[in-house]
Amino acid sequence: MSDVLICAKGLSVGFPIGGGLFNKQVLKAVDNVSLDIKKGSFFGLVGESGSGKTTLGRALLKAAPITAGGAHYSDGEVDYDLEKITNDQLKDYRKRAQLIFQDPYAALSPRMTVRDIIAEPLEVMRLTKNRQETDARVREIAAKCRLNLEHLRRFPHAFSGGQRQRISIARALVSAPKFIVADESVAALDVSIQADVLNLLKQIQSDMGLTFMFISHDLSVVAHTCDHVAVMYLGRLVESAPTRKLFAAPRHPYTKALFSAIPSLDPDDRGSAQKLTGEIPSPTNQPSGCKFHTRCPFAIDHCKQVEPKLETDGTGHDVACHRWKELMAPQAA
Ligand SMILES: Nc1ncnc2c1ncn2[C@@H]1O[C@H](COP(=O)(O)OP(=O)(O)OP(=O)(O)O)[C@@H](O)[C@H]1O
Q: pLDDT tens-digit profile of 196-247?
């Protein structure tokens, strides 16, 4: 049996935007992404705002349209081709693959009690036979998420950001999923609360044997949480590696620039890394060649003309940069 839960091959997501009847313009939010997410892993996806992280996460949940390439989900019980998935399979997939929302303030209906918020997926997907069974499941999952059972009768406005995020997590977990996309799930929280929620997610992952895709714009958040990190820029993966390797020796100039934005991880060698300047280009007006060349201090003509492929070195550390080897050499500043 394969150890891969999600396998994407050449996956692209394009959104039609404006244009005339015969001249439709497409915004490529995700472009030709291939990746494997291993069962039971915590897979991090990082990149600036607009790089396509949310869209990729949603495509893997079958909540954004896959316009080219595809993705497979295989958990040992079922094997779904997300492109050809039938309606019945999709219903089942909704139980197995869930999203934890970005903003715990916006995600919870103010008119529902915490009990009803957590119970709703069970009722919509008809996963329990009666109210008693639903209540038992809600209490079980609330306890796992360290929610006070007394609080189940209250409304979300009574809670802090961290507690609301626990409610969102409980709601996502109640259908006993195998795969969770957590999209900027701690970004809206204070730093001390972020650590609490991250610890909870890690605990739940090991208790329930879940697989996470953890989306963040912040490398420091993925450092202690993720086993593997993929870096996205303008819809493409530019680097992908086990976390330890990526943090020990990032290879892509974009990844290095993201590191330079983390003060606490920026002591000696990374102090000299180039800071990121300028803005990510619009996906509707993409640069030629390497998409990062307009912001890369090391770009040469070749980079402007030819797009580098994501290449692996055989150790699971992939990078898409023509110059990474020479830039890693000791004499390169
Ligand atoms: N439904 C849509 N229709 C048109 N364009 C979209 C749609 N959803 C996303 N986009 C565009 O796709 C690109 C990638 O957006 P996406 O939200 O996936 O990036 P992101 O890296 O998750 O950013 P953020 O961190 O801000 O959420 C952006 O240019 C965005 O404007």
A: 888 999 999 988 899 999 999 888 888 888 999 999 999 999 999 999 999 9
Rg (the chain; Cα; Å): 21
Q: Which residues are within 8 A (CB) of 325 and not within 5 positions of it... i.e. 6 or more apart?
A: none
ipTM passes above 0.95? yes
The answer to whether 47 touches 57, Cβ cutoff 8 Å, is no
Q: Which atom of ligand 1 is nearest to the CA of 102?
A: 27
Enumerate domains of the chain plus CATH numbers.
4-328 (3.40.50.300)
DSSP classification of residue 77: S
- CA–centroid distance for 161 within its chain: 21
Any atom of ligand 1 within 6 Å of the Cβ of 250: no
Q: How far is the CA of 52 from the centre of ligand 1 (A)?
A: 6
* CA–CA distance, 4 with 75 (Å, rounded to integer): 8
* Dist CA 97 CA 149 (whole Å): 26
| Nearest ligand 1 atom, CA 27 | 5
**What separation in angstroms does the CA of 302 have from each of 255, 290, 296?**
20, 9, 13
